[in-house]
Amino acid sequence: MAVTMNDVARAAGVSLKTVSNVLNDYEFIRPSTKQRVHDAIAELGYEANLTARSLRSGKTRMLGLVLSDLSAPYYAELASRLMTVASRRGYRVLVEQSGGAADNELTALQGPFRQLTDGLLFTPLAMDADAVAARRGSKPVVLLGEHILDPRFDVVTMKNEEAAEAVTAHLLAGGRRRIAVMGAHAEESAGSPGLRLKGYRKALDEAGIVFDPALVAPCGWRRDGGASAVAGLLDSGVPFDAVFGLNDTLALGAMHELLIRGVSVPQDVAVAGFDDIAEARFASPSLTTVSPGMDEIAERSVGLLIDRIEGLKPEDDGVHVEAGFVLTVRESAP
User: Fold this and answer.
1) Which of 11, 131, 301, 302 sits a CA distance of 20 to 30 A from 292?
2) Confidence band for 55, pLDDT divided at 50, 70 and 90
3) For 160-291, CATH number?
C-alpha cells in the first residue's frame, strides 16, 4: 500500500497541514519540525504525487519566467534572485529562454510551458502590448522591463532614464566632456537603449554640452560589442575622454579594448556601466556603474504575481513599479 501524507504526519507527530507546508517549502516552519517531517518521509519512502495535488487544487505552485538571454549576466543574476524570492513564498520557478524571437515568446505565453505554471514573469522583446493582451489568457502575468509600458499590465521595471542621467552627470563632474555611449543608435528613444540615451542627453543638456551623434556607437549588448564599438571610435580618430556602456558587459568589453590598446583607464578615458553585475566589482580596474535595484525588482515582481495568483490583490488596472537605483563609484571612473 502506498505511503500517504497522513502516514508521514503520524510518524512525524505533526498535522497534515504541517506536512503540506514542508513539502511546499513554506517559510515559517521551525527547522526541528521540518527535519522531523523530512526524516519521516525518508523512513517511510513517501513520494509526493505532484500531478494529483495540482489536479485537486488547480494550482501547481510553479511560476514561469521567460527571459530573452540567460547567458547575459544581468538576466542570470536576476533569475537567481527571482527564484530565491519565489522559494520563500513556497513556489518554484520554471525558466524559458526566448532569444527575443516572437515565435518563442508566443509559445511561452500560450504553450505547454504556461499550462505548468500558475502565473508568468515575462520579458517580451518581439511581441507588442496588443499581441500580449490578446494571448495572455486568464492566469496572471507580470511584465519585466520597459519594452511594454501599458496600463493594462502589471509592469516592474527600473529607472532607466534617471539612472543613466546620474552616471553621465558623475562623469561630467569628473571633468569629462567627450563621453562616448556604447549600445544605442543616436536616434533611439524607446526601450532600454532609448531611455538610457535620453538620460545621457539630459545630463549633457543640463551641463550645457552639445550632443554629438558621432559619440554614440550602436552595437550588441555583449563584451565583444563594447570592444568593437570602442575600437571603431579609436580607429576613426573621434576624440573621447569617457565611455558609458549601457550595460556592464559593454563597458567591460570597451575597457578591455582600451587597455590592450595602451589607453589608461581612468587616466586617459574613464569608463562606466549600468547594472552592477558581480563581475563589475572584480574587474581591474573595478567598474563604476549603477545598480538598478535588482533585489527590489525581484521582490516586487514575484510578490505582485503571487498576490494576483492567491487573490490577495483585487483586480484593477495594472500596477507599474519602478525600482530605485544606486550609483556605485569605483576605480574606472572615480
Assistant:
1) 131
2) very low
3) 3.40.50.2300
